Structure formats: structure tokens, C-alpha cells
Here is the input.
Amino acid sequence: MNKHDGTNGMDEWDDDVDLNAHRAKTDDSEAIDFFPPNYRIGRTKYMFVTGGVMSGVGKGVFSASLGHLLKHYGFTISQIKMDGYLNQDAGTINPYRHGEVFVLNDGTECDMDLGTYERFLDDDLNKFNYITSGKVYRIILDKERRGEYLGRDVQVVPHVTGEIKYLIRTKAQEGPYDMIVVEIGGTVGDIENIHFIEAAREMLYDEGRDNVMFSHVTQVPYNESAGELKSKPTQHSVKALLQMGVQPDIIVCRSAIALNRKVRQKISLYCNVSENHVISSPNTDSIYRIPTLLDQQNTAQIVADKLKINLPQRFDRSRAFDIYLKYLAKPHKTVRIAITGKYTDLHDSYVSILNALDHSKIKADVNLEMEWIDTSEYSDGRSMPTDLLDGISGIIVPGGFGERGAEGKIRFIQYAREHAIPFLGLCYGFQLAVVEFARNVCGLKTAGHTEFDEHADTPVIYLLPEQRKLTEMGGTMRLGGYEVKIKKGTQAYKYYQTNKATERFRHRYEFNNEYKTAIEDHGLIFSGMTPDAKIMQILEISDHPYFIGTQFHPELTSRPYLPQPLFQAFVMAAKADTGKSKNDIPQTPAQVG
Ligand code: GLN
Here is the structure.
């Protein structure tokens, strides 16, 4: 019988749970041990978060806010996202389908919710924080081939659910954490997420009722003509959850307006939760309000009571995003930023960029407004409306892949460079800034990028040498956090205030050093590079208010309390730019060769 180690006010684990029951590994036993070695039941408590009625209502933000809240009540917390799709990671999914691909320090390509968790927890996560069905099935199929299931038929229950539990527990032990918030993707009823909900149900049985709880995040629609919030869809989704053996402890209601007593009572009665466990989460102007909103409804205490633990300390309100709430309370001068990409009608594709800008606007004391420009419309020489960039004080060319929109992006980079508009090029934006500079400043008219011009005469950007022999797409880019050496005396150094930083990468192509001298001779400075100086990673132009490109993705490491320095400087430069007049949009693509 295992005992938890008694730290952090955790109770003794439920004595009824006999771990040995799960250790039997004989042919005729149904019980299989899915506990990592030395796992102690009760050391870590679990909160599973499911979604109801429809997706996209803010389950990720709720999970992250709950993690944030519990962390600032003194618990050690981590968060897991479980996604139903059979992709092993998000790296092979088009951002247009699921939003941005977020990259963790260890190189895991994952769902954008992990970005929200990192920002709200202010912590670096890793591959154990992200579980997809593809990852789980991969583990199982490999084990089956190695004969590790000892002659058994391999089944969804207990093997798939067991491997899921094993991964969750492995994360728990890694801390060890007091609590893990586990978000189950999609909505209750999705076929592809059933095994996750079943694994969560089993965990309640395995670990005991004091160690596992459930929150259900659901949409409560507002019927305008009747002027009423409707609880019926929530009742149905909770029924669907009950059919799977899960009774939620907390129901979080996302709605246009705050819940009134009547709706609370209805949801309470029909869904078997006490009234004060029905949490109201009305639409708000900022996600930074959510932790406070949860705190006002006593959420941390509800969790602590259910899991029979004490809150280790009072809520550290100074970390409750108070600077954002203060910022929201007063008006600010508006600065307009153009984001040029090809997924401009799905803003979730650029969610970390939007967050990094959000973090930077506080110190700059400005309000930022985005102008979304689809560069594929301007890649074929089509003329641009002359007022397109009127009032724009900064241009961001984000990361991207492939040919579509690339020449259009080059036109915007040229415009930013020639009109002294603050410019920040991220990954693909860095690479295209090199192409633009080579063509239009260095006179290398045929300069190209082999991603969209395989046989370019002057390949200023080409495949990383280690990429040339690869045939597989998934997980094969240069991925994750690497050190960047920053040159003293440069703009980058001024912003970073240090000569090295760890930044996150996701690319196959790089600058071709054969053209380094030609390009530097014309005034472009490579101010950041790998410590061995082989891969160029930051570029800048000195006679420009702000012209910086990064081979990495600085947006991924910006945090609410620590804006990424290059973003902060970009927003400052954009603020300084406001009011200047701009005209002369180049009417032909920069491509000459
Ligand atoms: N397509 C480019 C590369 O693979 C840029 C990638 C990116 O912007 N993330 O190198």
C-alpha cells in the first residue's frame, strides 16, 4: 500500500484503493498496472476539464486560468492537453484547421492551448504536457510489436486508456506536482475523444474520489428574443457525460451575459452540482480577467474542499494579471499594426503573435489595432490600393510555408524598409527580408528562396544541410529552443541587454552564408547567430527606426509579465511612428529576376 508523502497540505490518500490490484500481470487477470515505478497515489491530484455543447468556447483559457489561480494559491501545477486526432503532434496540421502550431522548448509541436498554458503558468512545458491519440497509438503499436503485452489481445480498455493514464502519471511524477489540470480536447460526444474521457473516469476509480475531479465547460446560449439564457444544451451535454460515467464537480458556463440565479438553479438541479459550483463566465474584453473572475466565485476553495486539501497560501493577487486590469481601465492612443500572411481570416493562426503584442502594449501604453493583409492577393503584380497602409505604424511578416503569398510579403518588406516603417520579420519573414534586401539593395536581381524557387540562380535562402536527406515531414524540422549568440553593439543587443538568449525555432531553410559578405557589405547586419556562428538568426538594418528579422519565433517565448524584448522594442518603435504620413506603395512585385 502506498502513502503519499504528505507535503503541501495534501491529505492521506484513500485507504480503500489497493494499488496491488492493478499490478497483477497474469494471463487470466483483466487488471494491468499502468502506474509508473514509485508512483504514489494522492501525491498529485487531478482536475479533468471537458467541453460541452460546442467547441471554441474557451476551455483552454479556463484550464489555463484555473492553473494560474491554483499556482498563485501556492500549489505546484502543470497542465496537459489531450487531443483526439491521430496526428502524433500538431506539426503536420495546417494552422487553418486548428490554429497556430505552438513549439515547446524540447521541440514538441503542439496545439495552441499549450501556448496559453505557458503564458498563464509562466512555465516551460514539454512533450508530456501534450497527448494526442496518435502519440498513444504509436506507443501501443510499438509495444505490441515488441511483444510487451504478453500475449494479450490489445484493446481500447484497458490498453489505450492505460497508456493515457501512464502518460498523465508520468507528468505528475516529473514535478512532482501537487495538481495537474488535464484538458480533454473537443466536446463530450466526439467519438475521437471517448478514450480520454474513459481514461479520466478510470483515474477517478484508480486514484480515489479525493484525488480526481471534473470541470465541464459549456456554452449557455442567450436567446435574444426571449431575453433569456438557456440551460437545456448544458443539461444535455452533462447527460452525455453521465452516460460515460463522469459526474462533473464544477460546471463553467460560458455565456454572453452573467448567469442569473434562475439559470444557476436549473443547472444545479438537473446536473447534480450544488449552485455555487456553477461558475459564471460571461464574455469579457480580456482573457486576463478570467483568473480573477474564477477567484471571485471561490473556485480555488471549491477545488481544495473537493480534493480535501488546504490552500497553501492566500491568493497572490499581485500576480493576478493586475497590470492588465489596470491597463484596461484607462484609454490609450491607438497604434495600427499590419500583419501580412495567408491565414489572415483565421486569427488563431497567429495567436502567439497577438499575445506577444498584447504583452508589449502595456509598457508602451498604447492600444494596438491589427490590419490583416492577405499577401496572396498581392503576389502576382496586382496593384495595391494606395490607402492600404495609411495609418499603419508597424508591419509584421509572420512565419509561413510555401509559395503562396511569398512575393506579396516581399513587397510589404520592401515598403517597410523604404518608408522607414517599423518591421518585424518572423522566421519566413526573416528569410524573405534577406531575399528582398539581396534583390533590391545588393543588386542580386535573381535572388531567391529554394522553398518556392527550387532552382533559384542566387539561392540566398536554402535548405539546412541536415534537411537535405530527409524524406519524412513530421517532427523533422529544426525544432525547439536553441541558444542564439547576440552581437554586442547591435540593435538586438540593445533590446536583449545580453549576448545570449534561448529562442524557439521551427524551420527547414536558412541563410546561405555564401552571400554573407555581399549582403553585409550593403548594410544588413546579422546581429544574432548560432554560438558556432554558422546559422544567421537575427538581421537588422541600422539606418531604419526598426527593421529586424528573426530566424526563430520570438512570439513563442513572450510572457505576460516578461514581454519578449524584440516585440517590446517593435511596439515602442511603432508608437513613435504614429502620425507620420506614408504613400508610394510599390505597384509591382519586387521580383525582377
Ligand atoms: N518555411 C520556412 C522554413 O521552413 C519558414 C518556416 C517558418 O516560418 N516557421 O524554413
Notes: Residues 399-401, 427-428, 451, 506-509 surround glutamine (CB under 6 Å). The longest helix spans residues 156-174. The CA atoms of residues 191 and 359 lie 38 Å apart. Confidence is low (pLDDT under 50) at residues 1-24, 588-593.
